[in-house]
Amino acid sequence: MEVHLLQEEINQSSDKIRVRDVQIVTREAVAHMKEGEEEKTKSYSALIWTQKSIVQNDIEFISDIKELKVAQKTPLRVLHRRPLAVRQRLIHTMSTRYLDPHHFYLHLRTQAGTYPPPCFFLSLRTVDTLTRRGPSPHKPKMQHIP
Fold this sequence. Notes:
CATH topology of the largest domain: Alpha-Beta Plaits
Oligomer: single chain
CATH architecture of the largest domain: 2-Layer Sandwich
Radius of gyration: 21 Å
Number of strands: 5
Number of domains: 2
Distance between the termini: 51 Å
CATH class of the largest domain: Alpha Beta
C-alpha cells in the first residue's frame, strides 16, 4: 500500500485524529534519532514537602550525588506509545534549596527519557528516612555509576 493511501485511510477512519506527511524512514534514520535522544538532557524542579522536620544539613548530601543510575518502569501514562519495560536512566546532577523545616526545592538535570515524578517520590522517601536508624524497608533501588 502506498504511503499516501495509508494516510488517507487513517484520516477517514476517525474524526478524532489526523495524520499528515507520512513517510517511510530507514532503520538507520530511526537509530540516528534514538541516538540523539540519549544525548539530550532535561531539567526539572519540584517543591518537596517532608512529613518529618528537617534542617538544611539533612539535605546537603543530595547535591553530592552525581550520575545516579535509576531503573524506571514505563509509566502508565505512556504505555500506549512505549512497551512496558525497565529502562536504565541517569540523573546527572541534583541540587537543593532549603526553605523551611518541611519544604525544599529539588532541581534535577536528567538524561532525556527519565520520568521525573518517580525520581521526586524516591527523593521524598530518602529524605524521610534520614531520621530513622537502620535500613529502611522502602529504600529506593538506586545505584551510583563509578
